[in-house]
Amino acid sequence: MSTATDIPRGPTTADLVFIIPSEDGSALRVDDSFMSESAMKEVHSVLITDIRGNEDSFSLEVHAFEALRNVESSTPDEVFADDDAIKNVYYPEVSKLLQQHLGVQEVAIQGHGVRRQGKDGQRQPINFVHADHSADVARRMAQEHASQTKKNHLHDERYRIFSVWRPLNGIVESMPMAFVAGDSLDKNDLFPVQYSDPHNEFTGLRFNPGQRWYYWSGMHNTERLLLQCTDSRVGLYVAGQTPHSAFAHVGSSRDAKPRVSIEVRALVFG
């Protein structure tokens, strides 16, 4: 059982891995080997502020992330061991949460990832800075959904993509999530990265000392972190997204419980 001393809290400094953009501005292409190629990445030490106790100071409209507390869930733990069960049981729960919290017209779940730190053959926490989709991919996804569902009115609606993140095995003791405030980004530091093929594209971020980084210490199963990946509406702030990365917290003990978490990616309209 976790004790107060097991949970790393407060401001901290950590090394984050940033992908280096291409020199000519074209979409960078990477594969599973790119993390071992030093020419494609650089490491920067950044100050990361803990939002615990100040959750209400941050909003999607300004910072592109939001912290939700006391979220009720009827999904049994065993569901998260099976991808089909997650789709059938947990997806509707996430859709309902987003509809109620955001007041959106429609939610279309795009996929999920369960990450089990330290487990061989399992997805690991992603330890480089990224946002889950590029603006071009988000636009294509929105157009395809509107066309496939024959809901033509959605072509004119605002659309966003969110990652809904939560732990699955209790309070997070190691490898928490760092995320950058959307209003601290320079749009010129954002660039597309093609992963394996041109249709699988995410957003990379060039390091800038003006970026403000945060994390939510000791997240537990009744909390949800909403990370905005894209926003079709312009003019609200510089960038409607919050790139993010797992990081090694210097305050985590050697015997800290490995992190198990799930993120669900959702396209919302309205």
Task: Tell me briefly what this model is.
This protein has 270 residues and is α+β, with helices and mostly antiparallel strands. Helices cover 14% and strands 31% of the residues.
List keywords for this structure.
alpha+beta; Jelly Rolls; five-stranded mixed sheet; oxidoreductase activity; 270 residues; GA4 desaturase family protein; 3 helices; AsaB-like
Number of domains: 1
Architecture in CATH? Sandwich
Radius of gyration: 18 Å
Q: Calculate the mean pLDDT score and round it.
A: 91
> What best-fitting shape do the alpha-carbon axes yield?
globular
Count of DSSP strands: 13
Q: Do you know the CATH topology?
A: Jelly Rolls
Proportion of beta-strand residues:
25-35%
CA-to-CA gap between the ends? 42 Å
Strand arrangement in the largest pleated sheet: 1-3-10-7-12
Main beta sheet, described? 5 strands, mixed
- Determine the number of helices (DSSP H or I, runs of at least 4 residues): 3
CATH level-1 class:
Mainly Beta
The helix-strand sequence is EEEHEHEHEEEEEEEE
Protein name: GA4 desaturase family protein
Organism: Lophiotrema nucula
GO molecular function, one term: oxidoreductase activity
InterPro entries: AsaB-like (IPR044053)
